[in-house]
Amino acid sequence: MIINFRTLLILLVVAIFANSTLGIFLPVYFHAKNTVLFQIILTSFLSILTAFVALKLINKKLSDLHKIANEIVKENPDTTTNNKNNNHYFKNIYYFLDNIETILKNYNHFITNQNVLLQKFSILNDKLKKSNQVREVMLEVSNSILEINNTEELFKLILEKLISIIDDADKGSFIVLNENNLLEYKAVVGYNLMELKGIQFKLEETFLWKKNFGNITQPCIIKDIRSFDNSHLSDDTYKALDRINALDIKTCLSIPIIIDNILYGMINIDSFNIDAFNEENIIIAEYFSNQVSIAIKNHKLIEKILYLSRYDSMTNTYNRCYFEQLLDKFFKKASRYNESFCIAMFDLNSLKQINDTFGHDVGDTVISKFANVLKDNIRESDLFARYGGDEFIGVFFNSTPKDIRNRLESVIEYFNNNPLHIKCQNITISFSYGITHFPEESKDLNYLIKLADKRMYEYKRISKGKVCTNSK
């Protein structure tokens, strides 16, 4: 308000009070004979004074509006204002009286400008929200790296999150460059991965390569996918994609994934809308591409660290520390559900003699060969680890000692029939083993391991005798 109600009320109360008080006491004080005339003069004076104060307050309040009105008019070069009373005591009131028509004419112009500003603000706000969404998605991906077991799970998560934040995105795929320099599908959303597994692309057949004329570092938008693929893909690849309805999409946003300046793969975001995707999506894609590259690189680094902490690098079997962690979990599960398993200890025979005769490189080859053959002859559900030096340990679930003995004797026969040919000599790999059975022989895990180790050494002493075990 130009002047608020409280200020106006105070002025009126003061004027009425002054008029009443002075109207009574002043005539008496001056011994005025005509009291009515005196009161009329006093009332007029107080009214003029009150009006003056009110106008002064209004003029002060209009000062800020004066500045705003000037700014509004200045924004429209076709109009000017009259400031001839700029030095008047009530200059702000005179300004509005003189220029009310001009100000009203410029009001629509002002409102239009405000709407434009609001629209720009809305666009910026939407971009900020989208930017925050992207950051939140990448934060979620980064936080999930430690929980994800393999890169394909990471690819699927990245793909799902990207589709969720890009408008009009319906489907998507994550393709990776393999060792044959061909791109193959690793994760999909909205497609059947098994149907796409057998389809591979040359780099020169991809959207990025064709659309960007070999520049595979920048995202691009491709429209009319069927026509595009028909022009650039081989007949076999085109027909394979057509059979599984992978060409029904209208538009694709293709995003390169570059790690250490080398193409790692591509993310393709697909839409059924021919007008889907724009330059804003390109900007999001560029940012996402950089962040995904970092996430994949970090995941690979973590995978490598986890591998080194869990596996023996020479034999690619579990190391002792990680094996004991897994065994503890399986032991608790077997104890709870009354499951059975066998423990087998292994030790290579004559390894010291092989090292002394042929060198430790040959000894390492013998160890690796033994481990690889053993792994090929046990189930994925079983455990097999390097326990130390030339000793190994295996845990075989839901098996009897007889089953394990028969399996290991066939491995011994294989080694006898397939010696290693090294330095013009044949080296027959030989090993000893001992078997124990849970829970038949004991429910004490440490005792079972020690007993299997003892039987393994007894077997080594008798060499070609039968496996030393009391179990049937």
UniProtKB/TrEMBL annotation:
Transmembrane segments: 7-30, 36-58
Keyword flag Transmembrane: yes
Keyword Membrane in record: yes
Keywords noted in UniProt: Membrane, Transmembrane, Transmembrane helix
Recorded GO MF terms: diguanylate cyclase activity
Domain GGDEF: 339-472
Protein name: Diguanylate cyclase (GGDEF) domain-containing protein
Annotated source species: Paramaledivibacter caminithermalis (strain DSM 15212 / CIP 107654 / DViRD3)
